[in-house]
Design goal:
The protein has helices at residues 33-43, 57-68, 87-94, 118-125, 143-151, 176-183, 207-221, 241-252, 257-271, and strands at 3-7, 47-51, 73-78, 100-105, 133-136, 158-160, 189-193, 226-228. It is of the alpha/beta class. The protein has a single domain (3-271), classed as TIM Barrel. Strands 1-2-3-4-5-6-7-8 form an eight-stranded parallel beta sheet. Helix 5 (143-151) runs parallel beside helix 6 and helix 6 packs parallel to helix 7 (207-221). The chain is globular and about 50 Å long.
Length: 283
């Protein structure tokens, strides 16, 4: 089973997606399931994990609604108000839908000290009650605080998004590489192989220029703790959907078939607790 473990949908508006600046103008439009269905069918992907792009319960409910009409949407990583003392009630309501598989807050937009907030950590502690994972979205400079955060929750499964967004555009690999190896010592953390193209120069990146970052993640986490993801449609500012699929396929080709299968779907199935078989996409 081949799973794209990270993508987004949205109905574009300048007010809600102000982070899409002029350099990313190509994605200033709507992106909905019908378009992604064509992309994954052409690339041989069996299912997807849909991840929040706005910090609103409205969007979380919308994603769950979309998934009810697209059987190849295997799970949703939504947003909930983790700092709210009543978050357990919200989680209880949303978790009645088994497609809610995880929660994410946009930590990359917060000061690193946010990860130490008692109310935020109290919210994180409620996730296990509902069988939910937590997606960690940070920049590379936040890795020290992220490790301290992870250590506060040794039993909570966590998934690191976008390889912690290393400084690819600047050509720097340290201290990111050493910190990723240190983070990988925490067995409850897995890592998404996604988001690298948008940390590179949009126009000039190549599989060879990104390969050192892939090698670090593979060495640190190993195939059973890596998940393939595209970050569609954000990736479109630098790469087509198929080009990223083909790039990863080239990188993992020297691995055994079972190791390739882990990266391309097996890890996602375990990490997000996917149980039902993927539904083929109609041609």
């Amino acid at each position: 089973m081949r799973i794209d473990a990270h993508h987004h949908y949205w109905k574009y508006s300048k007010e809600e997606y102000g982070w899409i600046d002029d350099s990313m103008a190509v994605i200033r439009r709507d992106f909905l399931p019908a378009e992604l269905g064509g992309e994954i069918r052409a690339a041989g992907i069996d299912g997807v994990i849909s991840v929040q792009a706005r910090q609103s319960l409205e969007e979380t409910r919308w994603l769950l609604q979309l998934a009810s009409g697209a059987p190849w949407m295997r799970g949703v990583v939504g947003w909930v108000p983790l700092v709210d003392p009543g978050v357990a009630d919200v989680l209880g309501e949303l978790s009645r839908n088994p497609l809610l598989r995880g929660v994410r807050h946009v930590l990359q937009g917060e000061p690193s000290s946010y990860m130490a907030r008692p109310d935020f950590n109290a919210g994180i502690r409620r996730l296990r009650d509902f069988g939910l994972v937590y997606d960690v979205l940070i920049f590379h400079h936040q890795l020290p605080e992220a490790m301290a955060f992870v250590d506060r929750h040794p039993e909570q499964p966590m998934i690191l998004d976008h390889c912690a967004k290393p400084a690819v555009r600047d050509g720097r690999i340290e201290p990111w590489a050493s910190q990723m190896r240190e983070l990988a010592r925490r067995p409850q953390v897995t890592c998404k192989l996604s988001g690298l193209v948008t940390e590179a120069d949009f126009a000039t990146w190549s599989p060879e220029s990104l390969r050192p970052y892939f090698d670090v993640v593979l060495d640190a986490f190993g195939p059973r703790r890596m998940l393939f993801g595209t970050d569609w449609p954000v990736c479109l500012v630098a790469s087509s959907y198929r080009r990223w699929v083909d790039t990863v396929a080239r990188w993992i080709a020297p691995l055994s078939r079972s190791e390739q299968d882990e990266i391309m779907g097996g890890t996602a199935v375990r990490a997000y607790g996917l149980t039902s078989p993927a539904v083929p996409i109609a041609g």
